[in-house]
Specification:
Layout: H1 8-35, H2 40-59, H3 63-82, H4 89-111, H5 121-135, E1 150-151, E2 170-178, H6 184-195, E3 201-205, H7 212-221, E4 223-229, H8 233-241, E5 246-254, E6 273-274, H9 304-325, H10 336-360, E7 361-363, H11 365-382, E8 386-391, E9 396-398, H12 399-420, H13 424-429, E10 436-445, E11 448-455, H14 462-471, H15 484-488, H16 512-521, E12 525-531, E13 535-543, E14 548-556, E15 559-564, E16 568-572, E17 579-581, E18 587-591, E19 594-600, H17 601-604, E20 618-624, E21 627-633, E22 635-643, H18 649-655, E23 660-665, E24 671-675, H19 677-681
Parallel strand pairs: 1-5, 8-10, 15-24, 19-21
Antiparallel strand pairs: 2-4, 2-5, 3-4, 5-6, 7-9, 10-11, 11-13, 12-13, 14-15, 14-22, 16-20, 17-18, 18-19, 20-21, 23-24
């Protein structure tokens, strides 16, 4: 029997589930390492995670991952059952994290549609050696000790075996209950496909797994399998227990031979053995069915591509609503009922937009806790005692934002450990506390999120920074005119490094400029504050989402532009007599005794303005990081929510347009370009 089904959804589910489990495992291992012990609950958790990975990897035929997970499962089974008194937890943590890294690499290959060709032989050998040392003089596998109950009850209505002439064979029955996701028949088929390697004498109900109705039957009643095999009950039980997406397993060994004919009995007559979590077996009456009330899913996983599409559709709805209510043909018409209905429509559209945005929002906890591993590994290699403190991990941002800040956070944490924190002997000589701390904090501020990376290390040396920047030709204004923020920001320039030698972690002048590029790519800013001898704080200011921004619309000639509200400091009118030029010929504007660069948008984008006189236009002061510039436009049109549309690649790549991050549609159907303030700063 064969079932035509697409393996791709199962592969996506495997990748998602394995990735989630690995993150849980890594986080658990780091927590247990801090406690310097593995509690019974800890061991059970790791055992459960590896058991799941083993089963799902075996089903997807990723044998190296499955074999490694199985060996880890053996090790933690021994720890759970025998509770050895002396365990080298430090070595165990190192070994387990190496295993996690291997599975991560292999899963990454699978995700990128590459062959998972890594070999786990060396890690398996190390696990085996560690287990042998735990056992002392004992060798060999630990026997399965779960009790097997025999039953003389009839089996469910199943087809007879084609062959039942082996008196040495035992008869087993299993009832499998899968997670309720509409794919129960595919799960059942995977079990039968694998079962062929274990026995030639088996039958199952439902018999036809190709029908969609089979999924409903299995969901309601379970998937019944009866087989004969010379294998021991523990082996057969282990086979069924390793099934992917298994919610519950009822397993029993039946007395006597296999049935020679079909039996007309109720399914749930026989006493059964529960899953080998060593829960006592349960007897069920004939009219009782497995309860589904407890197992109803309250959380589901949705592809980010589907959420992106949903967000796009909501954006189109917002635009179409504006095009209807702001239609020029409505001007002057008395349409009270229309505008009442339009307000209600706008209210519902806004609520829908808020709901969709909330669905896309995810907490920063996962990204923050990934930094624990980086701190742990670097602390060991640099021989520094460092503690990572996490604050505000529940703060939520758009899923797409998360993807853009992972690398910057990694670089900044590495920089703090390598550059910022002193070696232990230096800290002791200064009377500083041990361990050193790196704090990762997030908090909401208006329509943005602030992420702060603080350390209590040596701080930034302005003199050394200026010296290095000058040697590399990175300073383009008199040093005496530079503020502290401008000096500290030099560390983010490409090619800048204060390290005198190249190490595994730094010294090549790359990394920090990557941080700036990634943060500016999502419309964020980065700033630095430091106190010499006390520590450094790096602040990332990022938007909540990339999909919709609050913007201020301006007009230059016949063109319209949108400036994100979060970058606008103020807007004002001015006079020509406060404009002057610097030695390079660039226009500067004097505002309350401070000089700021002046950029005429008409000149920047070669647009014919309505007027070139300062008195006829308006100035919008914008900021990005520690930099501020003044933009000159013809007219300020007002504020509106802008649905961000990404520029086509041929425009971005061919024309190399600076200062534009995307575009949006206005209520009258015209296009407004969204300005990227950071682009003007460069």
């Amino acid at each position: 029997m064969s079932i035509p089904f697409d393996r791709e959804p199962m592969m996506d589910m495997y990748i998602f589930e394995t990735t989630q489990l690995l993150e849980q495992l890594e986080s658990a291992l780091l927590n247990y390492e801090k406690e310097r012990s593995f509690k019974p609950a800890s061991i059970n958790e790791i055992f459960r995670i590896m058991h799941t990975i083993k089963g799902s990897s075996a089903m997807m035929l990723f044998n190296e991952i499955s074999s490694l997970a199985h060996k880890i499962e053996d090790l933690f089974y021994y720890l759970r059952e025998h509770k050895p008194e002396f365990v080298d937890f430090s070595t165990l943590s190192d070994l387990m994290l190496n295993c996690v890294d291997f599975i991560k690499v292999e899963t990454g290959k699978i995700k990128n549609r590459e062959e998972a060709d890594g070999t786990a032989a060396e890690l398996i050998r190390q696990l085996a050696d560690f287990l042998v040392r735990l056992k002392g003089e004992q060798n060999g596998d630990v026997p399965f000790s779960a009790p097997i109950r025999k039953s003389h009850a009839e089996v469910p209505k199943l087809k007879p075996f084609e062959a039942a002439n082996n008196p040495a064979a035992n008869t087993y029955r299993a009832v499998l209950y899968f997670d309720e996701d509409g794919m129960e028949n595919i799960r059942a088929f995977a079990v039968i496909h694998k079962l062929r390697e274990w026995s030639d004498e088996y039958s199952h109900e439902p018999a036809d797994l190709t029908q969609n109705e089979s999924a409903n039957i299995i969901r309601e009643n379970g998937f019944f399998v009866t087989l004969r095999s010379e294998r021991e009950a523990a082996e057969i039980h282990g086979f069924f227990e390793s099934t992917l997406f298994l919610r519950r397993l009822d397993f029993s060994q039946l007395a006597g031979e296999a049935p020679a004919r079909e039996h007309e009995v109720e399914r749930n007559e026989a006493p059964v053995l529960q899953e080998a979590t060593y829960v006592p077996s349960v007897s069920k009456s004939a009219d009782h069915k497995p309860s589904t009330a407890v197992s109803q899913q309250t959380i589901i996983s949705v592809s980010i591509q589907k959420l992106d599409l949903l967000m796009d559709l909501v954006g189109e709805l917002v635009i179409s609503e504006a095009m209807v209510t702001q239609n020029p043909e409505l001007k002057g018409l008395q349409l009270e009922s229309f505008y009442k209905a339009a307000r209600q429509h706008r209210k519902i559209t806004g609520e829908l937009q808020d709901v969709v945005m909330s669905i896309r929002m995810v907490p920063l906890a996962q990204s923050f806790h990934k930094m624990n591993r980086i701190v742990r590994d670097m602390s060991r290699k640099l021989e520094k005692d460092v503690e990572l403190v996490i604050i505000g991990e529940e703060t939520e941002v758009d899923k797409n934002i998360i993807e853009h800040i992972s690398d910057p956070l990694m670089h900044l944490i590495r920089n703090s450990l390598d550059h910022g924190l002193e070696p232990p002997e230096e800290r002791r000589s200064k009377g500083k506390p041990e361990p050193a701390t790196v704090t990762l904090e997030a908090r909401n501020e208006g329509g943005e999120v602030l992420i702060l990376i603080r350390d209590n290390g040596r701080g930034l040396n302005k003199t050394k920074i200026l010296e290095k920047a000058s040697q590399n030709g990175l300073i383009h204004k008199p040093e005496g005119e530079m503020t502290d923020g401008e000096i500290y920001s030099l560390i983010f320039l490409p090619g800048f490094s204060t390290k005198d030698s190249v190490s595994e972690f730094s010294g090549r002048g790359v990394g920090m400029d990557v941080v700036t590029r990634n943060i500016e790519a999502i419309g964020g800013t980065i700033s630095v504050d430091s106190q010499l001898g006390e520590g450094t704080t790096i602040t990332l200011k990022i938007p909540l989402t990339l999909a919709i921004v609050n913007g201020i619309n301006i007009k230059v000639g016949d063109s319209q532009y949108t400036i994100p509200t979060t970058t606008v400091k103020e807007s004002f009118r001015t006079r020509t007599n406060v404009i002057f030029s610097d030695p390079a010929g660039n226009e500067m504007l004097m505002v309350r005794g401070q000089c700021y660069p002046l950029i005429r948008i008409c000149d920047f984008y070669k647009v014919r303005p309505a007027s070139t006189l300062m008195e006829d236009g308006i100035v919008i002061m914008v900021e990005s990081g520690s930099k501020t510039v003044c933009l000159f436009a013809d007219e300020l049109l007002g504020e509106q929510q802008a649905v961000v549309k990404v520029l086509p690649p041929y425009i971005k790549n061919r024309h190399k347009i600076r200062g534009i991050t995307g575009c949006t549609l206005l209520g009258d159907g015209s296009v407004s370009l969204i300005l990227d303030v950071a682009g003007f700063m460069s």
